[in-house]
Input
Amino acid sequence: MENKLTCIIIDDEKKDRENLRLLLNSYCPEITVLDEAHNKRTILSVLEKHSPDIVFFDIQLGNISIFDILNELKNIYFNIVFVSAYDKYAIKGYQYNAIDYLLKPVKSDRLKDVIKKINIIKNTLDREDTFKSDYKKLQSRYNQSSKISVTDSRGIHLLSPKEILYCMSDGNYTTLYLINDKKMVISKNLKHFENLLLDFNFFRIYRSYLINLHAIDFVLKEDGGSVVMKNGNALPISRTVKKEFFNKLRQVI
Output
């Protein structure tokens, strides 16, 4: 068949990779699956080896977000299709011609619609500039528009992640330090918020502290290192994560 599209499937669950491959083979004969990957090492390897038209990205791979890996890529020339089992990742109202979102379990009709869309734009858009631009817009709008739900003694609150300066652990409770000198005590441990805020540029700098990287005022390097947040509070940086922290910080600045 002429003008066949090529793709790579990225997912940390083998059964989900197999299911998507089966759907593509059964319902999208114009697609050739070049390869699969399941973690950062294999992702970078297959992207270096191949030049796919489409990459199907699972959003959460173990403890890391696919956004972290995409930020490291110098050249995003392919169509990005996000695939996730969690509707909390859905970016409602922000779909682009070059990017789409599939909810697991993937439906054959939705998959065919996505492939049809990509097939059309493949011949009309400059891939490298357009997909890079659209991905950055997508990530920015995703981070700005989404809210999280938290429950304290007063009730349920909807918070924008950018309202949270940092989270402090206290056993099975977590204190959220918010803008305008507000605080909330939530009966969830810090790991819960680490997972909840995975895609919003939060980083666990210490056993007891999860911080919003956009809420840092400045970084002190003396005395082992610490960050001063926008509310003036200084928080320590663990030696074990210091290198990772500075790498992450360079990505979001």
